[in-house]
Amino acid sequence: MLGMMRRVTDWIEERMGIGELVKPLMDHLVPRGSSWLYVFGSATLFAFILQVVTGVALSFTYIPSTSQAYQSLKFITDNSSLDHFLRAVHYFGASAMVVLVGLHMIRTFLFASYKYPREASWMSGTVLAFLTIAMAFTGQILRWDQTAIWTVVVGAQQAGYTPVIGGALARFMLAGETLGAQTLSQFFALHVFVLPVLIALMLGPHLWMVVRNGISEPPKRGKPVNMATYKQEYHEMLKHEGVPFWPDAAWRDVVFAVFMIVVVIGLAIVMGPPHLAGPPDPTNLITHPKPDWYLLWYFSVLALVPHFSTPYVIIGGPAVIFAVMFFLPLFARQGERHPLRRPWTFGVVSIVIVFVIAMTSLAGYEPWSPRYDAPPLPTTVVGTVSAKAQAGAQLFHDKGCEECHRIANYGGFRGPNLTYVGNRLSAQELTWRIANGGHNMPKFANILSAKQMDELVAFLQSRKPKLDASK
Amino acid sequence: MTDKPKNPTAEGGAPGGGPPPGNPDRRTFLSRLSIGLGGFAALLVGVPVILDIFKSMVAKEPRVWRTIGPVSKFQVGKTVVVDFENSNPKAWAGSSAQSSAYLRRDSETQFTSFTVNCSHLGCPVRWEQQADLFLCPCHGGVYYANGDVAAGPPPRPLARYPVRVRGGNVEILTTPVPIDGRVPKAS
Q: Domain B65-173: which CATH class?
């Protein structure tokens, strides 16, 4: 039996030469000491393959039509347990891919693996990172739920800020001048055909260069990269202490990739696929579009940057990030690679991580968003006050004050907390502020009648800490 | 790469080294011919494909007046949401063929219509009847009843749709999502 199989594989090998092709790749020498920090790139590749496979499976059921996509997604999510599972895997696989791209970039950045002769590896990697985000974004749109359609509009509006070609880019996002049937067809084509092919085309050179230039050896302090001698030294080092890629280095890649897939599948089983917002309806305006988690940080940034800078930050921000990342290796081709000799790299990485985490968590409760559903202040909060102030308390709710201002535990966070505003501002100051508005506050002069203004001010005047009678 | 002898048929060049037989000029001509022809075929197919993929960039859809309802349906001084079919509804569009706008009856004869899209990032602003303000859920943009920016990041007032009264009915001119804030005038 074994002999028979051997003869068949030999027959195939003689004709196709697959082993001849693959063996040098397996046997090629890699530096010793490539540790667990070197597994993120291959894990990203496995995550990509996982996405392709689960995506193909989902496409057997999904219908890319604006009138039916949501129903087919409902079916996938609610009526077919296998599709339900695969959609969850596809979602957590996407998240894993985004995280792994990040880890892979952090590792290559800290170890300065982008230096000569691997500049083009880093540059193609930058393109791949942005393509990954584009995949994640277009994937979110394919849900074609209420959030998705408004996310398209937000994306188009964002693209519209680009100088000169903004209008054209925005039309491209919508595949027309407004949301319509063609919008989803185009996102489907981008997500399922165009972007995966672009990723595959970029992956080709990205992986080929790993073989051609070798894995960057773990950096040693006091051993800077010198373009004149690097390649020769690298090959010398491989000759003396190199180990074959398979299995000496590859086993870690396999172990980690399997771990990653087990985690993704575990999350998929435990958490299930992401929640679908309501059915898509451009006429339903009671909606609060938000991107998926990997772009939330950017959504927060756009709320927080000074307003005059918005048009520049919206497109300029990502463009600058891409340019700095893409061209980085061309400005630092040689020199020390060890992170301890480049301590600023830790600074850059920690600032980026802290910034992204902070912005993402801010997006969780959005202090800048109005609290439409804030209930009228209960009597326990209003307390025993004059009839005039009672009326003012009602106005505080009705006129939208409460959507941005907080009293006790009610209301929004956009403006100052007014729980004890009676202590801070006089009636005159309150009237002036309400009538004239201010930084980020509307003028209410034409919205409130004189009587209403009086009542509201009376109420706000009554907002003082309760004096404890026992003291 | 491997120690095995290479398959001789895969080797280029003449046996025993030296230039391969044949006319080098003819060889130059043939390689240029092949590359040129290949490029020609690629353009032949590629140009229409690229044009098709990016055709939406220069999309111009017809502007259509859509009837919203009889004038008498709207109270003077009130702002309401109205729905209408967008300019180019496809048979398979489903709900995405629908658009919304805010419509305000300013006087017996005057109407104003605002887009629902915040001028910051396009999120749907909500009209707060009692507060007399439009509030955006995404980043806290606020507009007055006349569409002017009251607070928050929006760079421009709410864009307006052309609106008219014909035969006792209010009509709105379908309009692109006002990405650059410019809404074409009624023609």
A: mainly beta
